[in-house]
# Entry
Amino acid sequence: MLKGRLLKDRIARHYMLLATILSIFILFLIGGGLLIKSLPIMEEKSLWTLLTTSNWRPFKGDFGFASYILSTLYVTAIAIAIALPLSLLTSIYIIEYASPRILRAFTAVVDLLSGIPPVIYGVWGTLTIVPFISEKLAPHFVEFSTGYSVLAGGIVLAIMIIPLIISILIEVFSAVPKEMREASLSLGATKWQTVKKVVIRKSIPGIVAATVLAISRAFGETIAVLMVCGNFTDLPKSIFDACYPIPALIANNYGEMMSVPRYESALMFAAFLLFFIIVLFNVISRLVLIQIDKRYQL
Amino acid sequence: MELMTAPSIAEQPTPKAKSSSGCLRPHIEVENLNLYIQNNHILKNINLAIPDKSITCIIGPSGCGKTTLLRTFNRLHDDSVDVKITGRLFVDCEDIYAKDAEVTHIRKKMGLLAQRPCSLPMSIIDNVVYGPRIHGVRGKRKLYAIARHQLNAVGLWEEVKDRLKSPASKLSIGQQQRLCLARGLAVEPEIILGDEATSALDPISSKTIEELFVSIKDKYTIVLVTHTLRQAKRIADYVAFMYMGELIEFGTADQVFNHPKHKLTKEYISGGFS
Amino acid sequence: MKKLEEKIFKFLMIGSTVLILSVLLYILYVIMKKGLPSLSWDMISKIPSGGFYLGKEGGILNAIMGSLYLISFSVIISLMISVPVVMYLNFTLRRKSRLAAFARLTFDVLFGIPSIVYGAFGFTLMIYFGLQASLLGGIIAISLLIIPVMIRSIDEVAILIPNDLVEATKSLGATNYETIKVITRQLLPGISTAVLLSIGRGIGDAATVLFTAGYTDSIPTSLTQPTASLPLAIFFQLSSPVEEVQNRAYAAALVLTIIILTLSFAARYFSRRLSKNKI
# Structure
C-alpha cells in the first residue's frame, strides 16, 4: 500500500521536474533555434551591413534591415508618445478624483476590452483611421497620403496598449498607502500637489514597469500594424508615409522565403532580432527597477 | 550647540485669517458636531473647547470615536465619500466647515502625527522641507536652515546630519516618527494633532516623543488621542473622555483623573473596561 | 497660479478619460455595425464555396471549427505542462529556491515575447520535423504561446495558498503528490480563469497561425491537414475585391469579438467566485 503511494509520488515528482525543465528550456530553444537559422545570412554578410543598410532586394541577395528597424522604432515611438500621457492622465483621474463607482465601471470596461485581439484593431484601423488620415488629416501637411502610414500604425498600436498600461497603473496608484496622501494633505498641500509630489513619486517603479511592458508589446505587435502601415520598404520620410516594421516583414514574406536562397535565413534573422531586443529590454528594465528600489527605497 | 530661530515662513500671506486679538473663543471650539458614516451616527452632538498652549488628551475605549473626532479638526474626512458632518468647528474663530472655508490654510495651521509614521517617498531633508516648499518658500540655504532647526527641535539632527539626502524610509520607526514631527513643525502650525502617535513605537522612542510634546507645549496647542491611560496621566493638562461617540466628560487632568464627575468616567479610569 | 495648473490638468484628465472610453466603445460599435448585417445562420454554419477569396457563397464555419480545434488541443497540451510546473514551483520546491526564482524569471520573459516569434519558431520546428502547414503545426505554435500565460495566471493564485495548509496535509502523512491533489481541487477556480485567459489570448492571435496552420476552405479531418482560423479568416478575406467575401471577414470579426467578450465576462465571474470562497 505504502509502496504504491511512494511510487506514484516519485513519478509525479519526475513528471513535474521534467515539465519545468522543458518550459524553461523553451526560452533557450527559441533563442537558439532562431539564431541557428540566422547563421547562414550572418556568415554571408557582416552584422553591420545587415543592420545599417537599407537595400532590400532578396532576389539579388541584398538584405539590409535598416529601414525595417527604423520603421519599427518610429511606429513604437509614436505609439508610446500617444499612449503613455493619455494612460497616465486617465489613471490618475480614475484613482484620485473619480468616485468609487466610476472606478469600478471603468476598470470593468478596460478589463473587457484589453482582451480584444489585435486583428480586430487592425480591421477597425483600416475602416476608420486610414481614411481619416488620408482624407482629413494628411491634406493639411503633405501632398498625398494613402492613409496607410507610420501614423496609422502608431495610433492603432497606441489604442491597443492603452488598456494594458491603464490596468497596471490603476493597480500601482491604488497601492500608494492612504496615510501617505493624508500626511501630505495635513501639511496643507492641495490634492493636485499631493498627486504630483507624493503619489506619482511613490509610483515611479510601477510606471516604469508599465512602460516597459507597453514598449515590448508595441514592438512585437504584428497583425494590427501590418494592416495599416502600408508595407512599403522605402524609408518613410514623414509620418504620413508608408512604413514596414519588422514583424510585418516576417509575416508578409514567409510564403516566398523558401524560393530564394538566404531569404529564409534573413527572415529568421529578423525574428531573432525581435526576440533578442525584447529579451534584452526585459532584462535591462528588471535591473533598472532593482536599482531604483535599492537607491530610493520608495 | 547653536540655536537660531527658525526662518519664518510667515512671509506667506495667510488668506482670511482672523487676527487672534479679535478672537475670544478658545483655540479650537467644537459646536454641536455630528458625524454620520453611511447613516450610522458616529459622533453625537459633540461640544468641546480645546484650551490654548497646553496638552489635551482624548481618552476612551476603542471604537468610541476619538480618532474620528480628531480628524474632523483638520477636515481629513473631506475625501471620504460616505461621511456627512453637521455642526460647526471654530479654529481661531473661523468655522472650518463653513461653505466657503478654504481648507489648505486651515490644515497648514495644524500638524498631524499619525499612528504609523508615514514618511514621504523622498530624502530626509526633502521630507522636512516638503511643507515649506509647498507654501512657496524657495532658496536652498533657507530650506536647509529650516530643516536643521526642526530636526534639532526633535532631537534628530545629530543622528541624520550626515545623510540628509538619503531616503527617509531607511530610518528606524522611532526616527521616522520624529521626522514626521519635524516635518509637521516646519510649516509653523499653531496646533499639533496626535493620533495615537506613539502606539507603534518602542518604549524609548515613545518616551522621546512624549518629552518632545511636553517641551513644546508652551508654543503650541496640542491635542492627542492616547490609547493608554498611563500616557494621558503622564502628560495631559486637560482630558476629554469619550464613549460611544459622545463626549462624556472634560476637565483638567487632575479633575478627571482624581475627581471624575461621571459614573462612566470613573469606571473607565479604574480599569473597568477598555 | 497653483489653482490654474490644477484646473488645466483636471480638464486634461477628464478629457483623456472620455477620449479613451469613447474610442474603445467606438471600436465595438464599428465592428458590430459592419458585422451584424452579415451575421446569419448560414454564415456560421456553412463553409465558403468557390474558394474563400473569391467565392460568393457560404460562410465561415471553416474558420470557426478550425479555431475551436486549434484552441482545444492547445489548451489540453498547455494544461498538461502548466499545472505540473506551477505545482512544482509552489509546493514541491522550497519557496525561496533558486530554481523557482530562475524559472519564474524565464516565464516572465517568455510572456513578453511577441506572438510572431512563436510563429516563426513553430515554423522552424515544423520544417525540422518535416511537417506541412497543418492543424498540428498550429497547435504546437499556439501551445508554446499560451504556456507562459497559463503558468503566470495559475502561479498568481497558487502563491496565495498559505503555507500552513500545505504543512497540515503533509503532517498527516500525505506524500507530496497526494498533497498536490488536494490543493489542485482548491485551485480549480484559479485554473479555470487561467484557461479562459489563455483561450482569449490564443484564439484571437493571427501571427502564430500565419505560418503554421495554413489556410483552407474546408474543415480539417486530421491533424496533418491545414486549417482555417478566425483571425486569418478576417485577415485574408478583408482585402478581397468581392463584397460577399469582405462581409465574411466582418462576420468573422464580430464572432471573434463576441467570443472574447464572453470569455472576459466568464473570467471575471470566476475570479470573483474565487475571492468569495477564500479561507
